[in-house]
Amino acid sequence: SQQGEEDPQALSIQEGENATMNCSYKTSINNLQWYRQNSGRGLVHLILIRSNEREKHSGRLRVTLDTSKKSSSLLITASRAADTASYFCATDAKGTGGFKTIFGAGTRLFVKA
Amino acid sequence: NAGVTQTPKFQVLKTGQSMTLQCAQDMNHNSMYWYRQDPGMGLRLIYYSASEGTTDKGEVPNGYNVSRLNKREFSLRLESAAPSQTSVYFCASRDTSGRFGELFFGEGSRLTVL
Question: Do B59 and A101 touch (CB under 8 A)?
């Protein structure tokens, strides 16, 4: 089973609106990361939030982390058509060989111009 | 800046054939990973290597083997390919020697098994 689960699975909004995606995870973490993937391409790192941080900003991105609820949210403000992509959260789980990074199933965001 | 390089980018195999996907990173990262992504799905971890000389299973290791040849290179081998292994494969690397950093991904290798 996957460590991280995002919701919603898909989100369609108008340009200029805000988009919020949520991620829940199962075990304790060192940090949580958000990635973006344009169709058919590799993943690009957006933001990393450490377990002792509660909120982090990067441009139009705002990430929150609630370790008591084992959840995180990614907010994209004033969305643009170019934000259309899939967004994934990822967490580190302790394995026998070190930490392994596990991804959720992702949220597909479609921003209509 | 090369970053993470995967080869080949595309490959078509017949059932039962074998092949190796190559991955190399030039960022001196200690950890490397292989993921597969099926259409409309997230990434699933196949194998990872937390440091040179170590490898460990991820979520979906069956049917695959890996080799961490040195700090730069991490290869993924399919010994007897099956249609269920049709997927896009991504290699990634990361610095986990201190405070964990972000993952850097290659562009992917698209594998079709007939």
Answer: no
Residue A45 near chain B (CB below 8 Å): yes
Q: CA B35, CA B17: separation in Å to the nearest integer? A: 20
CB A103 within 8 A of CB A90: yes
At B6-63, the pLDDT tens digits run: 999 999 999 999 999 999 999 999 999 999 999 888 899 999 999 998 999 999 999 9
| Residue A7: closest CA among A82, A78, A84, A74 | A74
Q: How far is B68 from chain A (nearest CA, A)?
A: 13
Tokens of A24: 């829940």
Domain architecture of chain A: domains with CATH: 4-112 (2.60.40.10)
8 Å CB contact of A100 and B44:
no
Q: Does A30 touch chain B (CB under 8 A)?
A: yes
